[in-house]
Every structure is written in structure tokens, then in C-alpha cells.
Amino acid sequence: MPRRRTAFAAELPWPDYQAAVADGETPILIPVGSMEQHGHHMPLHVDVLLPTEFARRAAEAVGGLVAPGFSYGYKSHQKSGGGNHLPGTTSLDGATLVAALKNVILEFARHGARRFVLVNGHYENSWFLVEGIDLALKELRWDGVRDAKILLLSYWDFVTPEAIARLYPDGFPGWAVEHGGVLETSLMLALHPELVDLDRAIDHPPARFPPYEVYPIRPEWTPPSGTLSSPKNASRQKGELLLDVCTAGIVSALRAEFA
Ligand SMILES: [Zn+2]
Fold first, then answer.
1. Is 74 helix (H, G, I), strand (E, B) or coil?
2. Binning pLDDT at 50, 70 and 90, where does residue 176 land?
3. φ and ψ at 67, to 5 degrees?
4. Average pLDDT, whole number, for the chain?
5. H/E stretch holding 29
6. Strand ranges (DSSP E) for 33-88?
7. What whole-number distance in Å separates Cα of residue 258 and Cα of residue 27?
8. How far apart are alpha carbons 225 and 243 in whole angstroms?
């Protein structure tokens, strides 16, 4: 695959874009994020920046193109993102996200693309992405397109047990309460340190929730910081470890599936 001067599809003039996608071989990587509060120490677009960078790194390794990402995602869930009631968190209804994702996949397929990778950065998106994929594949089949293949991944699923032991020497609290904690803060320190203010990070024990949910939600169940675990032990070095481990895992998944 020839090396392009940019991995970002939208930075190409259309003839270059067309040459890249027309034969269906070039994977299109679509970052899917959210606009969601991430505590007092980080901005609202963490879930967009992180998957976009993983997508860029993976695209450069396999000759793929990164599509413009989704800046809005499904509603923040209290037990994984603090809750949709929090200021700044700006979310889509599930049906809107499903429809928009299906639209975008069908458009890229119209240009010739047949290989897709959804790079998720916001846990709550997960099942809506599955639904968008399912509907898009169904419509493509109706159109006679049977060779489309779509990978769905969330970057944190590539963190290995060895990396977890190094990242959380005092014990791993679990991905569910990682919102705004060590994982995302370390990655942001490695990639966008100018957007992180650790002096404003609030140290608190991991959030604890009862084994059920209640709606309307009880705002007092969410720690006042908005984060679900403490970012205190985040570091740039941990972010670099995460970047290396997750990028390697994503690249080998793409190589295995698109060989
Ligand atoms: Zn996040």
C-alpha cells in the first residue's frame, strides 16, 4: 500500500481519495466518541481525541484512512460515564447514532470502500454501533454488496494483563469505573498534556454503585468530581505504555482480519 502524506481521509483532494478507496482494499477507520464531562482536570472531547489517535496510528501501519469521527455519542451512563445529567455532557438518542452510523458506512461503501473499522472511545456507544453495523450490512446486501467487512473495537480492550499489572500496582478498579481515571488521564498526558491540569484532579476512591439502576437517576450516586475513579496515579509514562500496547493489538487485529 503506497504511503499517503496524510492518514486523514478528509485532508485529501477527491481524486486522491477516490484512488485510495475505489478498489475496496483500503480500510476506513471511523473513530466514534462523545462529548462528555471527564472531571475537573480534562476537557469534554477526551473520547474523541483518544480513538482518533489510535485510528491514525493503526491507519498508518496498515495503509488505512481515518474518516472524520463522531464527536457526539450515546448518552452517558451513570455507572460508566458519570451520567447524562452532568454539565457539558451532550449526547445523541440511540436511534440517532444508529441512523448516522449506518448512513456514513453506506456512503463510504458507495465510494467503493468495503473494509471498515469502528474505533470506539466511549463505552456507552457499544450496542448502538452493533446495530448500525447490522443495518448497514443488511442494506448493502439488498444492494448486492456481499463483500463488506466491518470490525468493531474499543481501544481499552487491547490492554493486556501484563500492562494492567504495571498500570495499577495497587489493584485494578475495573474498566467500568475508569471514567476520567488513570487510563484516560495517562493517555491524555502522553498525547495532549496541554489539555490536562492535574492540579485540578480530584482524588477519591472508586465509585461504588448498588447492583441495580433507578430512573430518574440519583445524581448523588456519582462522585461530585464527575470521574468514577481517581486520576491521581496517572502519568505520561503510563500513557505511552497504553499507546504502545493498544496500538500493537489493534494493528494485529486489522492484519489478521484484512490479510
Ligand atoms: Zn472517556
1. strand
2. confident
3. -80, 160
4. 96
5. strand 28-32
6. 65-66
7. 8
8. 26
**Whether the predicted pLDDT of 1 surpasses 60:** no
Q: Is 178 a catalytic residue?
A: no
Residue 68, Cβ neighbours under 10 Å: how many? 12
Average pLDDT over residues 180-203: 97
Question: Of 242, 230, 236, whose CA–CA distance to 171 is shortest?
Answer: 230
179 carries an active-site annotation: yes
Measure 12 CA to ligand 1 centroid, in angstroms.
Answer: 29
The DSSP letter of residue 24 is S
Confirm whether 240 is a catalytic residue: no
From 41, 45, 124, 178, the catalytic residue = 124
Q: How far is the CA of 141 from the centre of ligand 1 (A)?
A: 34
Question: Which of 47, 162, 203, 213 is labelled catalytic?
Answer: 47
- State the distance from the centre of ligand 1 to the C-alpha of 124, rounded, in angstroms: 10
- What pLDDT is stored for residue 3 in this prediction? 60
d(CA 88, CA 45): 10
90: alpha, beta or left? (left if phi > 0; alpha if psi -120 to 50):
beta
pLDDT, one tens digit per residue, over 44-96 is 999 999 999 999 999 999 999 999 999 999 999 999 999 999 999 999 999 99
Give the Å distance between the CA of 61 and the centre of ligand 1: 25
Residue 50: the pLDDT is 98
Name the active-site residue from 36, 41, 53, 178.
36
